[in-house]
Amino acid sequence: MSPARQGFTLLEVLVALVVLGLLAVGLAQGVHFGLLAWRDEIRLSSMDDDLATLDGVLRRVIEGMDPGDDLEPAPVTAAKDRLDCVTRLSSIDGPVPARRMQAVLLVDGNHRLVLRWRPYPRASRIGEPLPLTETELLRGLSRVELAFQRANGTWSSGWRSPDLPTLVRIRLHFLANDPRRWPDIVAAPLRDRP
User: Fold this and answer.
1) HSE-up of 67 (CA within 13 Å, CB side)?
2) N or C: which end of the chain has fewer CB within 10 A?
3) For the chain, which residues make up each domain, given as ranges?
C-alpha cells in the first residue's frame, strides 16, 4: 500500500453506514414485533383467565342449586336466556360456609352477563325483600343460551318442574366483532333432596 492510501474512502464509510442502518432497522422491527406479540398474548391470556373464572362461577351456581324438599319443590324457573334459582355459593377455598341465595343470571341491555343475587331467607320475611345485588361477570355478550336436560335425556329451552334438571348447558354468544370463543359450560346440580 502506498502511504497516501491508509484510511477508508468516503464510499466505503457510506456503505458501512447503510449496512449498519439496515441492521438497526431490522433489529428495531424485530423488537417491535416481539413486543406486539407479547402484548397480544398477555391480552388473550387475561381474557382466557376471565372466562375460566366465569366458567368456575357458573358451574358453582348450577352445582349448588337447591333441590327443594317434599313440601316445597325446587325453586328454579328458567327460560332460554334467563335462569332464576336458589343456590348455595361458597368461596373456592375459604372457611366461610356456603350461603343460600337467590340468583338470577341473564345478559342485560348493555351486553353484560350479570348475576343478580340476594341472600335467601330461611323463613318468610316481613316487609319488602332485600334488593338484588348486581355483579357483572363478563362484558361483550350478545346473549346467553340456556338448555336443560330432563331425566329422560331430552333437552328443553326452559324449566318449570318440581325437580332439578339432570344437566344445565350454558352457551355464551359474544358480539359479532369479538374474537373470544368459549366452549359450552355443562354442569349438573349436585345436591339431592333431604
Assistant:
1) 12
2) N
3) 49-187
Print pLDDT tens along the chain (194 aa): 556 667 888 888 899 999 999 988 888 888 877 777 777 776 655 555 678 888 888 999 999 898 888 788 888 889 999 999 989 876 555 555 667 888 999 999 999 999 998 887 765 666 677 788 888 998 999 999 999 999 899 999 999 888 899 999 999 999 998 888 889 999 999 877 66
Phi, psi (degrees; rounded to nearest 5) at 51: -70, -35
Work out the number of other CB atoms within 10 angstroms of the CB of residue 168: 26
- Between the CA atoms of 52, 53, 57 and 58, what dihedral angle is there, to the nearest 10 degrees? -30
Phi, psi (deg, nearest 5) at residue 6? -105, 0
**Which residues face 27 on adjacent strands?**
none
- The reported pTM is 0.69
Sheet containing 155-156, strands listed edge to edge, beginning at the edge strand earlier in sequence: 155-156, 141-149, 167-174, 185-187
